[in-house]
Each structure stands twice: as C-alpha cells, then as structure tokens.
TrEMBL record:
Keywords per UniProt: Membrane, Symport, Transmembrane, Transmembrane helix, Transport
Tree of life domain: Bacteria
Protein name in UniProt: MFS transporter
Region entry Disordered, spans: 467-487
Keyword Glycoprotein: no
Length: 487
C-alpha cells in the first residue's frame, strides 16, 4: 500500500479512508430517510388507511413542518460551526443525531392505538422529533464533506462514492419494500407489524454504517477564524453568498419535481398501470441506471465542463418525462423513460453537492469566514423545502384524482388518471427546465473561477500562518479543530 501524497498533499491511505469512510455512512442514512420521505404517505393511506380528512390534515402538517424545519437548518449549521470538542465539531452531532433519528423512526411506524384528531396530534409530535433528529445528523454529516479535501477532483471522488452508496441504500429499499413487507405481513400477521419490523432493521443498518464514518474519517481542512460566527451574522453568511443562494433556488425547483415523481411512483403502478408488482422491477432498473450514471460521472466531467454536464443531464431528464407522457402505460416505454430521467437525475444530484461544496470556499473568500455546516445546511434545506412542496402536490393529487378513495385501478376515472399523469410527469418536466435556466444564468463558479479562489485562499492562509508563527508549508490546515485535524 502506497503512502505517497495525494493531489493535495495527503497520503493515499488517508484519502481512501475519507472516501470510503464518508461514502459508506450514507448507505443506511438514505434507507431510513427514503422510508419516511417516499413511503410515509403510502404507509398512512394503504396500511393505517387514514380518511381523506385525516390525510388532508397530515398533508398540511407535513408541508408546514418541513418548511419550518428547513428554515431551522442554518441554525443547526451555526451550532455545529461553533462547536469545539476533543472529537472536532462534526462527529459529536453526527452521533447524537443518528441515535435520536433511529429512535424516532421506530416510533413513527409503531402502532399508536389512536385515530382521528388524536392520531394527528401524536403524528405531529413524532414527526417533529424525527425531523429535528434528521437535521442534527444531516447538517453535521454533510458539513464535514468540505473539510475532507479542497481539491475539486477528490471532492468529486468522495461525492461519487457517497452518492453511489446512498443510491444503493435508497433503491435497495425501493425494490425490496413491496416483497419484504408482504413476506413480513405473512409471518407477523399484520401489515402494521411488517412495516414496524422493517423500520427496526433499517435503523440498525443505519447506525452500523454511521459508526464507520465516525471511526474512519479524518478532517483535513480546519481553518480557524478570528472568532466564532456570531448568531447575528448567521443570515449574512447565507444571504451574502450569492452563488449558494442561486444553487439553492435552482435545486429546490428541480427536487420538487423529482419528489413528486418518485412519491407517486407506487401509486402509479398500483392504480394507473394496474400492476403493483412491476414497481419493484421498475425500481431495480432505475437503481442500476442511477448508480451507473454516478459511476460514469467522473469520465464525463473529465471531458466536459460542469456547465455542459448540467445541460446534458437536464436534456436527459426532459426527454425522460416526455417519453413517460407518451408511453401510454407500456412497460418498455416506461422503462426507457425511467433510464433517461434517472440517468440525468444522477448527474444533477452529484452536481448539486459539488456546487454547494464549492460555495464554502467562495463564502470564505468573499466573507472572510469558513462556515462548512452553515453552507451545507442549505442541502437539507433543499431536500426539506422540496419535500414539503412535493408532499403538498402529492397529497392534493391523491385526493383530487380519486386515488386515495380507490380500491382498484377501475375505481380511478379517466379524468382522474389524466390529472395524476399531469402532476407526476408534466409539472416536474417544467420545473426541470426552470431549474436549468436559473443555474445557467446565475451560477458563476466554473472550474477556472474556483481554482483562482482556492489559490487566493492558500496565499492568505500562508500569510496568516507566517504572522502567527506557524509553518506555512503545512498548507491549508490550520491550528483549529479536534484531534482529527492533526492526524
């Protein structure tokens, strides 16, 4: 095993530890997150069988709570960025968040023994704990990414492994959900017990892989600011980082459409296509497509600029939606549409992470402070804001199309099916185009601009190191942070 320095001066074994230690931690996280973000409404409507009135109330609750929690993400980022401990500023919160998140997930799929108004009240309490715990873990986890490397190529390598692992976890759940819950229902005697047992298994997997991240990763970029970021400057850190704001707006638009499409997927195969069993087959095809897209991303990005990669990815998504609308419920057409759509989405998913990571250096260069967690708090904000908007669209679609009251495909009228398809495919296609327009016109951190910013930051840090008597040859790692920074 070689101990030679990497592209930015780190030994190769350390670089591999960060790539795999960080990446593997996403595997269980995305399983747990997907069970709630994609399938909570399925659980409530198909297993608990809530009424239209209860579903309407829960839809409103989901929209409001997800938006409220998304706004709170920067506050958690502020807390993480100002944390000082022997374990650094990220890992304590990753551990605390993972444990609380696991407990809340198990509680979410427990049998509460209540209905009506009481059910909604209990749901609000449990969901609030789930969202807060998810925020604590997510902000600290992804906030750590920019501290693992400042090199764009190495960040892409970390990001590719992280997204591949995340998608393996996500699509493993999507593919297995129907057959596993059916098998567990036969073994345990009820659908509710089946979903509860699945939740317990998933949180155990999540905690195991989070432990790998805590033990394996080592922070390499630790820039000490003159003083911790004051709370009064929290909004300024975000508001004055114009590139971060444009990325956030564009990605909220994109992810809203994507969330609507994926959340309606199982309903589509059950009530529109007419064969729920094909959902697992379709999900398996999409999972392989998306993971394949992530694996080829480095090859594509080596030949095309990120701006052109984004254009190609957007075109694939638009083509996928167009084919989906014209597929007329044939499995071949739907499969082709899914490959196009999820292949493009894989590229955009990774680009979003890279755009936000590069905004850390831009914010440091522009504002004089390095705020990884506050900056990366906009990533869960993107997911939560889009999830909130998507949940509202999904709940409204289920009610207006008649799917929530339907017991079989024959119960859905032609008009209801047309409305369902328009919401699942037509609206997201328009949102994908709008997202591309925002980024193509407003985002300016191309490769050359970013390289100039990093060079300027390195010069500043060497000058600061000389002023305070540190060895300027140590590069961008300053005398801040926990014990990870010295290893």
């Amino acid at each position: 095993m070689s101990n030679s320095p990497g592209v930015d001066g780190a030994p190769e074994p350390l670089r591999r530890r960060n790539v795999w230690g960080f990446g593997l931690g996403t595997l269980g996280r995305d399983m747990v997150a997907a069970m709630v973000t994609l399938f909570l409404l399925v659980y409530l409507t198909e297993v608990v069988e809530v009424s239209n009135q209860t579903l309407g109330a829960i839809t409103v609750v989901l929209v409001l709570m997800r938006l409220f929690d998304a706004v709170n993400d920067p506050v958690m980022g502020f807390i993480v960025d100002n944390t000082r401990s022997r374990w650094g500023k990220f890992k304590p919160w990753i551990a605390i968040g993972a444990l609380a998140w696991a407990a809340a997930t198990v509680l979410m799929f427990s049998d509460w023994g209540v209905d009506g108004v009481a059910f909604v009240v209990v749901f609000v309490g449990v969901y609030l704990v789930w969202e807060v715990a998810y925020t604590v873990n997510d902000i600290s986890y992804y906030g750590m990414l920019p501290s693992l490397s400042r090199n764009q190529g190495e960040r892409e390598r970390i990001g590719v492994v992280a997204r591949v692992c995340a998608n393996i976890g996500l699509f493993a759940l999507v593919v297995a959900l129907v057959p596993v819950t059916e098998a567990l229902e036969d073994a345990l005697g009820s659908a509710q017990r089946a979903w509860f047992a699945l939740a317990v298994v998933l949180v155990v997997i999540m905690l195991a892989f989070q432990a790998i991240t805590l033990l394996a990763t080592r922070q390499r970029i630790a820039v000490e600011t003159v003083s911790p970021t004051p709370l009064r400057e929290l909004l300024g850190v975000i508001a004055r980082n114009d590139q971060l704001l444009w990325v956030t707006l564009a990605m909220v638009i994109f992810m809203t459409g994507y969330t609507v499409t994926t959340s309606l997927g199982l309903y589509y195969f059950t009530y529109i296509f007419g064969d729920a069993g094909m959902y697992s087959v379709f999900a398996a095809i999409l999972g392989v497509t998306q993971i394949g897209g992530l694996l080829v991303f480095p090859l594509v990005s080596a030949r095309l600029s990120r701006r052109r990669v984004h254009l190609v990815a957007t075109a694939l998504c638009v083509a996928g939606y167009a084919v989906f609308l014209l597929a007329d419920s044939t499995m071949v057409g739907i499969g082709v549409a899914g490959v196009l759509l999820f292949g493009g989405q894989a590229f955009i998913q990774l680009l979003m992470m890279m755009f936000i990571a590069d905004s850390v250096e831009y914010g440091q260069w522009k504002l004089g402070r390095r705020n990884e967690s506050v900056t990366f708090s906009l990533q869960p904000f993107i997911y939560k804001a889009s999830s909130a908007l998507g949940a509202g669209a999904v709940g409204l679609t289920l009610i207006l199309s008649g799917v929530n009251d339907a017991d079989a495909p024959a119960d859905v009228t032609a008009g209801g099916a047309a409305l369902f398809k328009a919401a699942m495919m037509g609206l997201p296609m328009l949102l994908v185009i709008l997202s591309w327009l925002v980024l193509s016109r407003r985002y300016r951190l191309d490769e050359a601009t970013y390289a100039g910013i990093v060079s300027d930051l390195a010069d500043r840090e060497k000058a600061l190191a000389s002023d305070v008597g540190l060895d300027p040859t140590t590069g961008p790692v300053a005398a801040a942070g926990g014990p990870d920074d010295a290893r």
